[in-house]
Amino acid sequence: MNQTQIQTAEFWESQFSLSDSDLEQIYNFFLETEKPQTILALAEVVIRHRVREQANELRRVMAGRTVYQPQRAYNVGEELVFPALKLAQGKVTGIRSGFNPDYGDFNVITVDIKGKSREFAADYHQPHPLNISNGVELTEQMAGDAENIRREHGGSVAEKIKESLADRDDFVNIDNKWFVKSLIADVNIGHLHLTEAILEVANGGPLTMAEIVPQLELDPGIDPEVQEFSLTRQMLIDGRFDQVSPNDLPQWFLRRMEPESVQSVPERLEYRPIPFDRALLTPQQVALEQELDDEWTGLPPVKVTGTAVIPLSYPHRWAGTLPLNSKTMAIFNPDHSARQRFILIDDETNEEIPAWVVADGRYVSGLSNWYKENQIPVSGFIHLTPGPEQGIVMLGYDRRRPQREWVRLAVVKDNRLQFELVRRSIPCGYDDLLIVGTDVVTAVDAHARRAASMQMPLSSLLIEVFPSLAGLTPQNTVHAKTLYSAVNMLRRVPPGPLFAELIRNPGFKPVGDHYWQYQGAA
C-alpha cells in the first residue's frame, strides 16, 4: 500500500523522461569515471538518482510529522502524514472511542486534510499493513529498491535515455558506448595518416584497436579506453577505414585494400529495381517466390537452428558470392556492420576461407576459388552452419560421387542466348529446375552487356530465352524456376517481377505446376 510513483511500472514504462537533474547525474558520472559507458550503465545511474531523490522528498515531507499507523495513539493538534494517501498531510482535530465486536476497543481520530475531515483508526492493536516500525524503514520502503527497478525496467529507461542523448550535441555514441564530447582525446589528421600506414603494412588488416593505438603515441595520461573510443570516432568519420569485425571486438581494415568485389558490387549482381504489380501474383507464385528466397525479394530473416541450405544461382556462381537472403542473414547478421570479414571453414577439409559480408549489395564474397575447386554448378546446394564462435561459419555442399547429368548450357547465336542439353559431370546435389551453365562465359557476359546497353525490357529477355528452353522438353514448356535461372544469366532479376510479367504478357500461358508455354505476341 505504501507505494510511490517511481515504484510503479507505469511510471518507468510510460511516464519517465530524462530531466535536467538526471543529465547532471550523467555528466557527473562521466567526470568521475572518465570512461565511455553503456546506456544500461547510464540507466542504472539515473534510476539510483531517482530513488535518492524520492527518499529525500519523503524525508522532507515527514520532517516534524508523525507517520500514521493504526496501532499508535495520537493527540489533538498532532500533524500526521499518510503514506497510503500519496503522502497526504493533516492535523488531528478530535478523538473518540470506537468498538467493533470482531476487533474490540480502539479509538477513532478525526483528521483535517486539505479542509476536509476524515476519520481513521487509532490504538488499533490488530495486525495491519500500515503498521511499520519507524520512519527510516518507511522511507526506504517507499523510495523503492533501485536494483529491482533496474532489473525490471532498466531496458525501457535505457531506450529513453538513448533517445534523449541522441538529440544532444554534447554526447557521442559509438556502437553501444556513450561518452561526453568534452572528454574525448585529441586525435588529429596526423594520427589518421599513421593509422593508414599501420594498416597498409598489415596488408590492409584486420587489426584491433589494441594493435593500432600503442603505435600512435597518443597522450599517455589518457585512459586507453578513451584513446580507443576517440580514435574509433575519427576513423568512422574518415572514409579510408572500415570496421569489419562480425563480433563485439572491433577490427579495422583499410578500405582501398579490400577485395575488389567488396569495394564495388560485381557486375552480375547489380540489381536495377523493376516496378511491378504484386497483386498479379497468384498464391502459388508467392509460395514459389518464397521458396526461391532471392535476396532482392526482401523476405525477413528466419531463425536458423541448424544448417541453412541454399541453391547457388548463376549470378552468385559467376561472382563467387553467396546471397544475403532470409536464411543467410540470420547467420551473417549484416545489420552488425556494413562490411564484415568472416571466416568460412570447409566442413570436409577444414580449409579457412576469408569472406566478406557486403550488406548494401546483399551478398557475401570470397568463394570463387572454392566453387571452382569443388566444381559447384549453378543450382548446387550449399550448406551454411553457424560456427563455434561469432564470425566463423561452416561451409559445405551436397557431396557425392560425380555423376553425368543433362545440363542446360547456354550459347550465344545470332545475338540471342540459346540453350542446349549437354552431359556434364556433377559432383553434388542440385536443383534440376534451376541448373544452367555455359562454356562461353565471356560471350554470355558480352551479350548481357549488350542487352543492358539496349535497355532490353524484361519481356524481351523472357521471349529471347523461352524458345530454346522450351525446345528441350517434349511438352514445349518451361518451368518458372528455369526461366528465373536463365534470365538471370542476362540480367539480375528477382522472381517477383518475372512472375508478374508472365501473368501480364498474354503471349505466355500457364499449363499447371508453374510450367508455361509461349504462344507468341497476341
What would your notes on this structure say?
The chain is α+β, with helices and mostly antiparallel strands. A hairpin with a 2-residue loop joins β19 and β20 (about 415-430). The longest helix is centred in the N-terminal third of the chain and has 24 residues, at about 40-60.
Q: Low-confidence stretches at least 5 residues in length (pLDDT < 50)?
A: none
**Proper CATH architecture of the largest domain:** Beta Barrel
Give the oligomeric state: single chain
Structural class: alpha+beta
Q: Which key features would you list for this structure?
A:
alpha+beta; Arc Repressor Mutant, subunit A; seven-stranded mixed β-sheet; single chain; five-stranded mixed β-sheet; SH3 type barrels; 5 domains
